[in-house]
Structures are given as structure tokens and as C-alpha cells.
Design goal:
- Helices cover 28% and strands 22% of the residues.
- An eight-stranded parallel β-sheet has the order 7-6-5-4-3-2-1-8.
- Helix 3 links the parallel strand 5 and strand 6.
- It is globular and about 45 Å long.
Length: 186
Amino acid sequence: MIIIKNIYYFYIENTKDIDLNNIKGCKKKIIIYRNNKTKENIERLKSFKKQCNKKGLKLYIANNLGIARACKANGLYLSSYNQKIYLNKSLDLIGSAHNFSEIYQKIKQGCKTIILSRLFKTSYNDNKKHLGVVKFNLIQKKYSIDLIPLGGINNSNLLKLNLVKSKGCAFLSGVKKKPTITSRLF
């Protein structure tokens, strides 16, 4: 069985994290490039953007307006900790949030879509709780913008995504650690 969503968001930290040849289908797919560890190679990002264009994928760059403009990205991704006001008309904005105050901040920044974390329990240890399907759906009802679920999505709970009232879903570790998830999506 497959997951029925209109938009899929894939987080990558390196252009080598994802094989664009494995991405098929007519659904809308967005790649969010967020690299906090190494210096960006603009030429490699420009080349990757061209490959994305050929495959019909959109590319968003995290938290760096200059790099997003330099590689002609489709948009800018604003992490939950990013508090700068952008309201940029030339680029589409996607935000990330974990709670109501962060959702409000991303709306104030001009984000049309907000990726809300964490949908399911994750394997890594920290004190943040997960929302679950019911709580996510109640939060989605409260806002007029698109909320996209992220976090803890694995093979055992993948079908629960069909119960989530959202146009899409986002994958972080599922892209490189669990390629079977991405193959089940299309």
C-alpha cells in the first residue's frame, strides 16, 4: 500500500544524500537543503538545482538568503530557531516549528507552509514529546496555513500518514537511512 499525499518534503544535508534518479512519479516533491556543518559549494548547489529542474523538483535552501539567491533556489526554509523577519516576495518561504509560539513566529515571517515536528516518537533521546495523529489534526484545524508532519516516520507507522489531515509529509532521516520508505511512497 502507498501513502497518498500531494507533496513530499525531503531534508538533505549534502547533495549526495539523495539519488534523484530514484524519485519518480507525478506528485510534487520538494528538497530542503540544510547544511550546518560545512561551507557551501555554490557551484555544486547550482548543478544540483539544474538536476532538480530536470526532474521537476523544487529546491529550498535553509536559513541563508544569499545562497538561495546564488543558486536560484525555489525558496527559503526557515528553521524553528531562525527568528529573523524575511517576508521575501521573490522566494517562497517554508518554516519549521515545534509548538504554537513557533508556528505564530513562522506565520509572522511570511511562511506559507510550516513543517511541524514531531509527529511520532523518535529513536533519538531528548525531552521533546511527539504529537500523534489526533493532536496534529487538531492543531491543523486551528490554522489556515498548511502544516506538514515530520518526525519518527518509519516503516511501521507509514500507513498512519493517510490519517493525517495534511497535504504532504516530510522526511529527514528516512531519505538516507531508510531508502525503503521513499520507495514505498511512489
